[in-house]
Amino acid sequence: DKEVRAIFLRLFAQLFQGYRSCLQLIRIHAEPVIHFHKAAFLGQRGLIENDFLTKVLNGMAFAGFVSERGPPFRTCDLFDELVAFEVERIKAEEGNPPKMIKHVRELAEQLFKNENPNPHIAFQKVPRPTEGSHLRVHILPFPRINEGRVQELLQEGLARSQGAPPATRGDKKCVVPAGPPVGTFICS
């Protein structure tokens, strides 16, 4: 699963490399609006006649991508680092499948670490239903919840969590690296 996601991450990093240089911040409105200059992006990459990329850039998903990733000061992630710093590596690996596979595996490992910051926590497996369970006609009603016991458990959990350090990592916002300008790419 993570390796497939890493392959798509590389694909989108290649498709959108240099997109930040075509973002325009419009401050006419009460709240600034971020606009993506599609013609400049396609023109600088020599892909004006490319129907696929034109359709991708005109889609709603890309509009959401620009509004989410457009602000210059936000939390950076693996995609931002890939677009900004790994463009040359991806280009160099195009003719070398073993290096490409190694990079995909590194990205997959990083995706796994991002989603599972505490590897020592064991995942509980859900037992398979017993044979013939789908044939049961009588389903027992869900038991009544003891509100007093629920409140006790909540209070115990709050008492424990107040003394413990916060479990979530604070996402640190920073200036998003722009990466190389669009004009430096030669598309194949």
TrEMBL record:
UniProt xrefs under InterPro entries: dDENN_dom, DENN_Domain_GEFs, Tripartite_DENN
Ranges where the UDENN domain occurs: 1-76
GO CC annotations on file: cytoplasmic vesicle
Superkingdom of the organism of origin: Eukaryota
Molecular function in Gene Ontology: guanyl-nucleotide exchange factor activity
One example of a Gene Ontology biological process annotation: regulation of Rab protein signal transduction
PANTHER family, sorted: C-MYC PROMOTER-BINDING PROTEIN (PTHR12296:SF16), DENN DOMAIN-CONTAINING PROTEIN 4 (PTHR12296)
Name recorded for this polypeptide: MTMRD protein
Organism: Ptilorrhoa leucosticta
